């Protein structure tokens, strides 16, 4: 097989397969970048269910940057297709967002693969499945990969690009360049691992957060305050490795490891391994209920997104 | 002994014992809130070493909010004292920032305790020692606690208040109220644990970040990008428990645990336990060197603080 070439610098139309919260958020993001979007979702009421999600997400995006004047939000830019093949056949990129069921996703990806031109990149939003398993039944698996967004996908820049055994590194590179050109922050995952990269680190942090509550070291609310008003602020501006590099002073990471490596290893040895048993679940539910007070889930989520937009605006103006 | 009362609503003067980076940052913070500060540091060149740290931190603080007009930065507001007892005797609150050596801190705290009026709260900036061990030689240990800031202390709101066995809960409460009144975000740590709360979670996250690099799952730079452009943005606006509460939809944490608790436990079981051996250290140092490129440590640190200030401003305007 000669060197494969993948479409990445001439993408005008994106197909979205599966339009729940994640799919709807992707639709809004691509529309906001001036791309046409073709949507297939098997539900009979798909369009009625998805349009409000897209509209809310577009309103968020309009606060971050002027939306692409056309074709965003025009009828021609967003088309709902009854047939998956019809959505895919005219697309230059395909993003799949079906439920996290391997057999379902595998068969959908096989149909997408059969309908899409061989140079069209295909990304799956899966958070828990492996690209190697997903691409198994595809005839052109070299362009099939995981393209995992972080919730809410229209706001959070991260996209984790994971190769399966049969994905061409050039396809991952092409997807990387394209997402960069759209203003996303892609990363290349070079070896498959459960939870990819970001959710593994989130799980590690939450495991200790649960341990701290289960052991009575601090309350749910104070654990949340500790992150939000402490290291969370720093993680919004730099990653953990870079922060320890800066924590080492002029000698950077090498000095940090020489002086504080043993202290870190001692701390690692004392981290908790909690179990989500009945008692711990009760503590967590009671704790967040306390923390939420009279605020509804919708109030809290909208406050989170308002703050997230403010942070993204601030960082955009500072970078 | 009758109910102790602690000074917290009539604090005009703060003593800072030990004026390195942390002490200097505390000095600037207290000055910015209109408090007078008395500093004792045993180095002969203490004042010349500390003043530039204070001035840089005050310049950062001036970007966040107008500084208190007086006495901040006036000669009378910041006084360097040759004798520890002289700094402490006229203070309404004492913050100790000596090196992380138990015997040294213990004897300093005994001297501070002997010189301070019994209703004066005494906080230690220690990141690694226990309040119970630190207060052992104090005659009035009920007002001695850990008050651990997060670096850089003049910018990051978190202050972890940890009681030792002999600390009065009322003293922790009084410190809590006072730090809130200054615009800090204190938390109450109710059981001593190595690393308190925030650094335990930071260590848990970094352990997995190191594992991901050591196992070849992603590069140092991509791990940092994954946090900074992904979950880090969300942790600047909400804590981990609240985010999973919101991740559960209308059913909140209870539904999250019911549906995704088992998936979290499966992920916890697969998290790494890396060792900081020679090969891993080399990977980390080479990785951050790559990521830093031509930027010096000073460039990187100043970019971090510029972004941090922008995020704090944005959140302040949004809360």
Describe it.
The structure is a homodimer. With about 325 residues, chain A is an alpha/beta fold. Chain A folds into two domains: about 15-190, Rossmann fold, CATH 3.40.50.720; about 200-319, N-(1-d-carboxylethyl)-l-norvaline Dehydrogenase, domain 2 (Orthogonal Bundle). Helix content of chain A is about 50%, strand content about 10%. Chain A is built from 13 helices and eight strands. Chain A has an eight-stranded mixed sheet, sandwiched between helices. In chain A, helix 1 links the parallel strand 1 (about 15) and strand 2. In chain A, helix 1 packs across helix 2 (about 45-65). Chain A is globular and about 55 Å long. The model of chain A has no long low-confidence stretch (mean pLDDT about 95). At the A-B interface, strand 8, helix 7, helix 8, helix 9 and helix 10 of A face strand 8, helix 7, helix 8, helix 9 and helix 10 of B.
